[in-house]
Design a protein that fits this description.
alpha/beta; Rossmann fold; five-stranded parallel beta sheet; three-stranded mixed beta sheet; 7 helices; 12 strands; about 35% helix; globular; binds NADP nicotinamide-adenine-dinucleotide phosphate
Amino acid sequence: MTVFITGGTGALGTELKKKYPNALAPTHQELDLGDREDVFRFFKDHPDIDVIIHAGALTGIRPCEENQSLAWKTNVEGTRNLVDAVLESKKKIQFIYVSTACVFDGHGEMYKESSIPYPENFYALTKLVGESEVRKLPEFLIARTNFVAKEKFPYPKAFTDRYGTYLFADGVAQGIQDVQKEKLTGIVHIVGDKKMSIFELAKKTTPDVQPMTIKDYSGPKLTMDMSLDTERWKKYKISDP
Ligand SMILES: NC(=O)c1ccc[n+]([C@@H]2O[C@H](COP(=O)([O-])OP(=O)(O)OC[C@H]3O[C@@H](n4cnc5c(N)ncnc54)[C@H](OP(=O)(O)O)[C@@H]3O)[C@@H](O)[C@H]2O)c1
């Protein structure tokens, strides 16, 4: 089975590559998802691809807001390029698109696969439009999730009033491998079994992280409650740091 991972150098991609050690995982430099010709050429050079796990994206909320054309090119057009290359190949390829809890408005519901999205910022919008691109395929899986890398929290402070059903990236990689093996299609939420604040999450790897609230923040609008429920799959326990 030939697996093709996009975003292999990222937080999730690094964990996915451990699950699929023989996967094709070109770096951004080797394959720019926003370059349609590059993407089509990659598929011609690798006619044996059976599974795509599309984790590559421009992920920062602020960078996406500040460079909307790059965010669109990467997250929407990059996904479209992959989808069109799959359609052109006429091969039955299992396509897993990694999406986000941020497609929802985050006003406090436990969002299920059937809940209606309403993005709060440009990053989330591009991820939702990316979902629509993937829906052009006869079969696809949209895996919405929320996680951080299992390493020192990258900021000195963390929100006590933003929530999610978080996992570390290794747990999400496990979940993705589970649904890949199960050949699930449609939408699935890969989530932890416990709602917690980002501060509680950050404390697990970084005991000296300091608390902050949304009042201490200025920048693009944020999704406040990213908690997801699932009516299609099991929930995972967050692993120990
Ligand atoms: N982290 C979260 O909280 C979270 C939550 C829910 C869903 N997600 C989704 O999960 C996926 C992985 O997230 P992550 O946190 O692991 O992201 P990340 O650490 O920011 O990594 C993103 C990856 O995408 C690559 N990339 C960016 N632009 C590219 C382009 N034009 N062509 C090729 N590769 C490109 C990056 O390579 P370079 O660094 O070399 O550019 C990097 O390998 C994303 O689709 C994200 O939307 C993330």
